[in-house]
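Summary for the funding panel

The consortium committed to producing paired sequence-structure records for every protein in the target list. Below we show the first two records in order, beginning with the earlier of the two.
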Amino acid sequence: DGAPSIIGRYRGFISFLKKAVPGVLTVHCVIHRQYLVAKHLSGRLHKSINPVITSVNKIKAHSLNSRLFRQLCIDNDEEFDSLLLHTEVRWLS
């Protein structure tokens, strides 16, 4: 977002990072750029992602579904046993 606390020339996080790791490459607003690209993806991709979103929403809608999903993952020795909700990023700029 360009806040001084992040990209400030003398006291921002980026200047601190450049002192700690001299050759580091920084990219401004990479998450915002990624969101803008993802927002305008083709219809075919949205068609394939919608069943995943529907499944996640159904699991997260009720605590019983979440517990059953967690138990299913544990029973199958999966690395992860919970789902994160997808979010829409809103920007002030």
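The next record, for a separate protein in the list, is shown here:
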Amino acid sequence: MNLNKNKAMAGPDVAALAADLSRAVELTMSAGAAQSDRLRAYQACESFKETSPLCAEAGLYLAAGTHHSLISRHFGLQLMEHTVKYRWTQISQQEKIFIKVCRYL
């Protein structure tokens, strides 16, 4: 899974990225998957969380999407929380406004 794509802020890209993340999270939690596959999916999710400029957007998309599993929605909330706690001073003013506005949705 290639979750480290650097993309500009755009709806369709975020949707595709969120779908990839959802699959990775589901694979991580799947008891039937091989340990190596689960580990790779987990590392991809963690890498995305640490490096992606679309962390908050993808997180909101996952958390707000009722078509995603509860596990994926929870991961979306974790992405947003991580952005606020650990990357707030590094993100742009536009991203901060996006997060502040989205908390009321």
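Regarding this second record: Confidence is low (pLDDT under 50) at residues 4-10. The helical segments are 11-29, 35-51, 55-64, 70-86, 93-102.
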